[in-house]
Amino acid sequence: MNTNKFWIRAFGIFGIFGGLILFSGDMLFYYSTESIDFAENMSKVSDNRIIISGVSALIATWFYLLGLGQVYYAFKSSVFKNTVIISFASLLILYGIVHSAYTGIAISAKLAAQNNLDITESIALALKTNKILRLFGYPVFLFLSVFFLSQVWKRKTLYPRWIMFFFPLIPFLLQFVLSEILSGTLWLVVMGGYLNLILVLFFLASTVALWNKTQLKPEGN
pTM for the whole thing? Predict the structure, then answer.
């Protein structure tokens, strides 16, 4: 197999694995057959589930960053290539940090349950910190979306235009619709791991789109 083609495919698979690993980490925090309340479920999970979930953030982030090798190959202009990669990498690193911050929320919830404290009050500070961390991601996400989507639309990348529907922006906006449609355990699974599921979807679509691409012809800046 052509070496270039091999790595394009491999990088995409790394990205998919990153999403699946961190989605699994989400489920270790949230999943329960008894309740769909995130805080309540975190208060009941075992210590091992909390530890493994926290560690999964580091491993998943490594895989996510390797996945960006595929996006790097797809862009032609060095200026836009570097801008997109730096922005995307910043966002994916934030994903890992935000997930790790949930360890504090889970531990606080667990201690509250063990000591008969109010869970909502006990996790308030950790939850506030987590929300502040997320705020750093929104401008980066917007910046990334403008550059990525504009370059794809202008056919300045190896991506076909249909990849725009799988870029995280549109699925991110759809979560507000899905949240109203889904219910029960399905709601818990989808909403609990939504941000990582949309990245699995993106890297899967990206891998399909670039599966047979073998070489780039760089254009001027």
Answer: 0.91
